[in-house]
Design brief:
Layout (H helix, E strand, L loop, with lengths): L1 H5 L26 E4 L2 E4 L2 H15 L3 H15 L2 H9 L3 H16 L18 H20 L3 H18 L14 H18 L3 H12 L7 H17 L21 H17 L7 H13 L3 H10 L7 H14 L3 H11 L11 H12 L5 H13 L5 H20 L4 H21 L4 H13 L3 H14 L5 H13 L3 H12 L4 H17 L3 H21 L5 H24 L3 H14 L4 H13 L3 H14 L4 H12 L6 H14 L4 H14 L2 H16 L8
């Protein structure tokens, strides 16, 4: 035991095996027991004093050092109760000033002393300081093992306070060469925040982590990275908002303003270390960074860091999939689809199909009609695979049904359109058999039935969807109101919108207000509609001023809604013959989005109402140059051409046939086609067209379903 105690680098795992501990014999005074091997003994203060006396005489140790060595032995044996009792006998509070002076003296002049220097016999050696710091650390660990974590953290904090008061500028180089001071301090730096976290004191834990990072304590890169990662994790998931103290706010305007920003800054530093190979790749760092940037809406930054990941961290399919998720979340679906196409490309043909990438591709394609056929291909690849789960199959059939519907609306041939519409409903119904509790699926089914004018089925699905989401979805209410408006029940539709306004979110509420105004126009209530539009514009303006930090998608949605509101107001004033007011509204709309086909279309409508047909044709041409397949401008162009007499009728018919190719259910196109046929003398054909226009008008919603 004497040999073990005298060794500076004592290893816990190499404890000497003695039949009986000096500190654990017969402890009847306190009643605390300690276990060594298969026997139990009691521990007496007199025998501890005996052991201390033996150690002091044999090794020339003082009282505190002897207790520190005895406590170390008891801790190493797993006798945490006995170890705590031994450590508790050391007067740490009284020794702290001497320890601080010893550390300061050590770090002052490290040159050899001259003969004239007076060496105080009371000065504590660095060996003693290291031994006592180790005793405090082991005392804290013993308390933690005994379930007294809060007390353990307070004991551990003594080490940090002692060393920090002696070394206010950090740990100097070389101080750990001939003593264990730096090693003990580093262990305490790592242990303290973990103890505070375990005790549930997250504020103190965060402060301890920051204390470990604000000064150069000579932590090796691995340890420093571990502290930075743990601090970022507790800032992200701790649920406690703690701003930086004033003394740490040294970056001015760029100082992190909240936990999320501070965590992101730490994780950026760690990712830079990974990129420079200062530390090894740690997937937890990327997980934390992905979470932090996701909740703050910075998906482009996340994509950049995924791209910086060194080769071998992700395989190619996983990297492309991860990047596609980032870009799609950032609203850059085209970039995401380009990456997903690589996963299904020739370079990956020999590898196992990456089904999540194909499913994501089908989902993104289902959101954009122009990618409908690519979405069908993605979905078929998932279906043809033999590794898909039941959930994957349900989701795949859902996206396949949506893509079939989008492809049908862009189809030229009637026979092909009918086939695609049938496939759409079949796929959606098949998906409902697998995942009948999926509200998104029920909404898609309601929408497809509405587009195909199956209004009863659409109404039933829309009601089911609203019940599944407990009436919390604005788009569900909107679809339900549009289905009711398609049945020409405008007052009932307005009532539904009024109910929805109390339940909808911010953006949905604005869209519902616009729908309410459109319904009021359909009921020939222009004054009420103008008032509703006024409220809508006021809300948009107020939200723009109050909420500065928004996602790009929200900002874009508000801009589009404001543009549409001014366009609708211009339409009202045009019908009322208030040309100057209509022009002001159109100028407002163009100031927000100049290249808007709808704004130029409304300009043409206003000019046509003033009998300025040539000027109207120019506006419609501008609208079609922006969006060649914009059906309202195609129909309006045909209407103006019809006013020029019989020579222009063939051209007008051509425009109307093109409009019907793009939108077969457009009743205005059928009506004007009937007028063209009537002017050409084809009365029977005109009657058929008028009949089609009438029937489609009876099931036409107040706004387009899609």
């Amino acid at each position: 035991m004497l040999c073990a105690c005298s060794g500076e680098q004592f290893k816990f795992e190499d404890a000497p095996r003695s039949p009986e501990s000096l500190a654990t014999r017969d402890f009847s005074a306190s009643g605390l027991s300690s276990r060594t091997g298969d026997w139990e003994s009691k521990f007496e203060d007199t025998q501890v004093d005996e052991a201390e006396s033996t150690l002091r005489d044999a090794l020339s140790l003082n009282y505190e050092e002897a207790r520190a060595l005895l406590g170390r032995l008891e801790y190493q044996r797993g006798n945490f109760d006995a170890a705590f009792q031994v450590f508790h006998g050391i007067d740490i509070r009284g020794l702290t000033p001497r320890m601080t002076r010893a550390i300061v003296e050590r770090t002052w002049q490290r040159k050899p002393r001259t003969k004239g220097d007076i060496v105080s016999t009371q000065e504590m050696s660095m060996h003693s300081v290291s031994l006592l710091l180790e005793a405090i650390l082991l005392k804290a660990k013993s308390l933690d093992e005994l379930g007294r974590t809060g007390e353990a953290a307070k004991e551990c904090k003594i080490i940090l306070d002692t060393v920090e008061s002696a070394l206010p500028n950090g740990m100097p180089e070389g101080i750990g060469e001939d003593c264990k001071l730096q090693e003990m301090f580093h262990k305490a730096l790592e242990l303290l925040p973990k103890l505070w976290t375990k005790a549930g004191c997250l504020d103190e834990s965060i402060a301890a982590y920051r204390q470990a990072l604000v000064r150069p304590w000579n932590l090796d890169p691995r340890r420093l990275a571990s502290v930075q990662k743990d601090l970022a994790a507790i800032l992200l998931y701790g649920g406690v908002e703690t701003s930086l103290p004033p003394q740490l706010q040294v970056w001015g305007a760029t100082t992190p303003k909240n936990n999320i920003e501070e965590a992101i800054l730490l994780l950026f530093i760690l990712m830079r270390k990974v990129a420079s190979r200062e530390i090894d790749w740690d997937p937890e760092i990327m997980d934390h960074l992905a979470y932090a940037l996701t909740i703050s809406g910075r998906f482009e930054f996340l994509a950049e860091y995924v791209e910086q990941a060194l080769p071998g961290v992700y395989n190619r399919a996983e990297r492309w999939y991860f990047l596609a998720l980032c870009y799609s979340a950032a609203g850059q679906n085209e970039a995401a689809l380009n990456l997903l196409k690589k996963v299904s490309g020739c370079s990956e043909a020999k590898h196992k199909p990456h089904l999540p990438s194909f499913l994501l591709g089908a989902k993104l394609c289902s959101q954009d009609p122009k990618h409908a056929h690519e979405g069908i291909n993605f979905a078929r690849k998932v279906i043809s695979s033999h590794d898909q789960t039941k959930h994957f199959m349900g989701e795949t059939h859902k996206f396949l049904g949506i893509c079939y519907g989008n492809a049908a609306r862009a189809c030229v041939l009637d026979s092909e359109r009918v086939a695609l519409q049938t496939d759409s409903l079949n796929s959606l119904n098949q998906a409902s058999l697998i995942g009948h509790k999926d509200p998104e699926l029920i909404f898609s089914l309601a929408l497809e039935n509405a587009v195909q004018r199956n209004l009863d089925a659409a109404f039933s699905n829309a009601i089911m969807y609203s019940d599944m989401v407990a009436g919390s979805s604005g788009r569900g209410w909107k679809l339900l109101a549009l289905v009711v408006s398609a049945e020409q029940r405008f007052k009932d539709a307005e009532t539904i919108v009024d109910l929805a306004l109390d339940e909808a979110g911010r953006i949905d509420q604005l869209e519902l207000l616009r729908l309410k105004a459109v319904l009021q126009i359909a009921q020939e209530q222009p004054k009420q509609a103008i008032e509703t539009y006024r409220i809508l514009l006021a809300l948009i303006q107020a939200q723009r001023e109050v909420q500065a930090n928004k996602f790009h998608s929200e900002v874009s949605a508000e801009r589009n809604l404001e543009t549409q509101t001014w366009q609708d107001l211009a339409n009202i004033y045009t019908k009322l013959g208030l040309w100057s007011d209509a022009e002001i509204c159109l100028d407002k709309a163009k100031s927000i989005e100049f290249y808007s086909s709808r704004s130029w279309h409304k300009t043409g409508i206003s000019l046509e109402a003033q009998s300025l047909y040539k000027e109207a044709l120019v506006s419609f041409s501008v609208s079609l140059s922006i969006e060649p397949d914009y059906v309202p401008s195609i129909v309006s162009t045909a209407e103006v051409l019809m006013k020029f007499g019989k020579p222009s009728l063939p051209i007008a018919r051509s425009f109307l046939m093109n409009a019907l190719r793009l939108e077969p259910t457009n009743h205005e196109a059928w009506l004007n086609l009937g007028l063209v046929s009537k002017m050409e003398g084809s009365l029977q054909q005109a009657a058929d067209y008028f009949q089609a226009a009438y029937e489609l008008k009876l099931s036409a919603p107040i706004q387009s379903f899609v």
